[in-house]
Design goal:
about 400 residues, alpha/beta, Rossmann fold, five-stranded parallel sheet, 21 strands, elongated
Length: about 400
């Protein structure tokens, strides 16, 4: 399960902001994922965090002075930019943003940016009034026009005790943005609708029927599809996962609510992936007040919920989307998956053995069997994120075949 950062040359430019301490953990995270990280610090940045800190975390000497760096390695500012897979300037002060916007090359960091062939990302971090100043906003727009990615700052309490936009965002969101820049955008232009998690069917105000689905597979699919350039809508039942960066999230509780959300979004979707574990049954009657133990009946009458996947299969030809389903099975995997694919009119089905301790619910790994018109294929045992990527590879292949028809 290799990290997507493994072997990548990442240059981190650190400028003079109190937020520089936060970037130390980013450098550590990248290094632990196998990236080769070079840190370039401005003179002001060295007043907030010592170069020794970044050297220890990256395992490389920190570069700060252009002329010292030139002596240590031939034309280092050119080499840094030429050899990098990505440059990330974080935190980026208003001063550094202005200098890059107007093409100044008065230190090692700005010359490296000018010499770079790789994607450049800038993460502004400063006082809210400085950030919202028209001059800073204009300079940020210049960077966008130059093709540089902007890591939008978060809002919150600042070091200067004021509250507003200007904080560095969390690494998890930054990670997704730079991974997208390093990924092939083969799903760009596609709108993918994904369902995830369980649904809950109320018994009374305190109790409900549900299942063990954690939503991890669906969220991984949404994250990887977004990373590969797709516009992603994620319809999620109740779960505790953080929404993937840049994905439109629609929260639902019941099978009925999930059906309504899916039907509202299916018409302009090019791909629908139904990975949610929708409750198959719901109580015939729902108590308006909590049922006391002594008043409870021991026979619970149930009725079937709406079959969302079947409804989508019936509308598939009319709307033209590619339909992908999941089959959570504990036995007869091939036969059950083949039957479900035919009954629900699917283009692709991922058959998941939920009987395994490392491939069922609530775990981070998976191993599925894919079935489409070409037959069965076994995916390797790997992380759910990598499983999602492999499923999307097949989705992309089917989309290409569909366009050629």
């Amino acid at each position: 399960m290799q990290s997507p950062f493994a072997g990548k040359n990442i240059v981190i430019g650190v400028t003079g902001s109190i937020a520089a301490f936060k970037v130390a953990s980013w450098v550590s995270a990248l290094t632990q994922e196998g990236a080769d990280v070079s840190v370039v610090m401005t003179e002001s940045a060295c007043r907030f965090v010592t170069p020794l800190t970044f050297a220890a975390l990256s395992g490389r000497s920190v570069l700060s002075d252009m002329f010292t760096a030139e002596e240590a390695r031939s034309i280092s500012h050119v080499q840094l930019g030429a050899e990098a897979d990505l440059l990330l300037i974080a935190p980026a002060t208003a001063n550094t943003i202005a200098r890059i916007a107007y093409g100044l090359a008065d230190d090692l960091l700005t010359t490296t940016v000018l010499a770079a062939d790789a994607p450049v990302f800038v993460a502004p971090a400063m006082n809210s009034r400085m950030l919202m100043n028209p001059a800073t906003q204009r300079n940020v727009e210049i960077l966008r026009d130059l093709g540089h990615g902007i890591i939008e700052p978060d809002s919150g309490m600042m070091a200067c005790k004021t509250e507003g936009p200007g904080r560095l965002p969390e690494w998890e969101d930054v990670r997704e943005q730079i991974l997208a820049a390093l990924s092939i955008q083969d799903l760009k232009g596609e709108k993918i609708l994904i369902t995830a998690g369980p649904t809950r069917e109320a018994l009374d105000p305190a109790r409900f029927l549900s299942n063990r689905s954690s939503g991890k597979m669906g969220y991984a699919l949404a994250r990887m599809a977004k990373r590969r350039g797709a516009e992603v809508v994620l319809v999620s039942g109740p779960c505790s996962l953080k929404p993937p960066y840049g994905v439109e999230l629609i929260h639902v509780q019941t099978a009925y609510e999930m059906c309504q959300a899916v039907m509202d979004s299916c018409h302009d979707s090019s791909v629908i992936i139904k990975s949610a574990a929708v409750a198959d049954f719901r109580p015939v009657t729902v108590a308006s007040e909590k049922v006391k133990k002594e008043d409870a009946e021991f026979v619970l009458k149930l009725e079937q919920t709406i079959d969302i996947l079947k409804e989508l299969g019936e509308r598939k030809e009319e709307n033209g989307y590619l339909l992908v389903g999941f089959a959570a099975e504990s036995c007869h995997l091939h036969a059950s998956g083949e039957e479900k694919m035919k009954k629900k009119n699917l283009d692709l089905i991922a058959i998941n053995d939920i009987s395994g301790e490392s491939t069922g619910y609530e775990v981070d790994t998976n191993q599925v069997i894919l079935l489409d018109q070409h037959g069965f294929s076994n995916l390797p045992f790997t992380s759910k994120e990598e499983t999602a990527d492999l499923i999307l590879n097949r989705v992309n292949q089917l989309l290409s075949e569909k366009r050629m028809q």
